[in-house]
Amino acid sequence: MIETAPGAVLAVLWAALGVWFLLSAVNQFSEWEVARFLRRHDRLSFLPRWTFFAPNPAQADLRLLWRDEVPGVPQPWQEFRAPFAPRWRHWLFNPELVTHKALADLSGSLLQTVARIGEDPAMFSGPYIALLAVVMSFPAVEGAQAREFAVVRTSGVPGERVMKVAFISRPHAFPEASADARVR
Amino acid sequence: MLSSPDRMRSPRRVPTRVFADAAEVPSRLLFVGLLIESAEAIRMREAFEDSGLFARRVIALVASRPAGYRVQIGPGGGAQSVSTMMGLQAVAALVVLAVGLDAAAGAAAGLTCLVTSGYLRWRRAIGGNGADQLTFMVLATFAMVVLAGGGSSARRAGDTFVAAQVCLAYFAAGCAKLISPVWRSGEAINGVLATEGFGIPRLGRRLSNAPALSHMLCWGVIVWECAFPLALVAPRPITLGFLSSGVLFHLTCAVVMGLNRFVWAFCGCYSAVWLTGDLLR
User: Fold this and answer.
1) How many domains does the structure of chain B reveal?
2) What is the ipTM score, two decimals?
3) What domain range includes position A121?
4) Do B144 and A93 count as a contact with CB atoms less than 8 A apart?
5) Which listed residue, A95, B25, B39, B273, has the most CB atoms within 10 A of its CB?
6) Percentages (nearest 5) of helix, strand, coil residues in chain A
7) Given CB atoms, is B153 within the 8 Å cutoff of chain A?
């Protein structure tokens, strides 16, 4: 490889990479005010946060459920289908991981928001509205007027699975105008 | 990763030809990861439709990136666009795998991967992981190296940065575990393994019945991650030990936890660690 760049260009490159690394290192201290400032302004996500299942590793799966409410009669809970990849291929090809992680990110973020500011204000948070938007897009049972969703933690082997309800939303009414179109 | 193989042909480095004959091979691993990412995104294209988890109206609620706004919710963010971009990424990754980054076609393909990978990151906004982050950073570094002329000094700068980021990644993750009571108590790994998403519940239960082993595994990961930066300054056999154990670590995480693309992203950067270590010794 022939050296082609003038010294000034290389100096700029080293400086840019050096600053990037320095800011990346600062960004690891999530509680620092300067790190918060960086994250607010890092709109393209150039700065990493390397934690890898720390400090609080996932100890349970987060699942999203919803149910419709026909006046006076709550319908059975249904689960958002986010299947896990079969083990014979998940080490190589695992598209299900992205869906599962996204759902866990949204649900986890909602639970953190609830813990921080309480259930009622959390209704106006991005994760709550996003999860509501996801569940509201599914077909409704006939006569349904409202829908609620829940985040449930599960862990353990099938048959001995431990399940804990982490959050239940308020019921949200379907817009009347589109209710007929949504009925399956 | 980004360095010229010329450096490695010096007589001083002849005895350590672990990567020398295959200098291009480790760096191409990253593009295997990009190829897999393309196939995965195409497979899950329904999730990008208007009724899916990554529907544009959902992503618009949680993403705060005006720069990617048009990509996320505009006409360019539909499921068909995602599939098209990922098809392009697959072709570009195959080109790099075939000809390497030194060739003009390979460099162009590498830059194409930066665009497509960035597109997917901003369009998806949620559900990403450390492998996506590192891959994107390496591709962005490659673009900066190309902008700086792509010469040996520029590539060395790129290698050094990539190596530093890999060391930071492991070190920061190790420190985060060190301050975590769950990790220190030895309960973290069997807890993770008890989940279906990242583990094998039956294995998690067995491990919880063997607390000494669980404790040893947790502390093994903590010590290994915290000590990884030593790979840059330690004698070569020790560096080789860190990198070999790193490959084994990521392969284990892939098989047990399904973290498939970490293998390609992180191990693809190990040649940069090796080369940077040579500079520092």
Assistant:
1) 1
2) 0.89
3) 61-182
4) no
5) B273
6) 40, 20, 40
7) yes
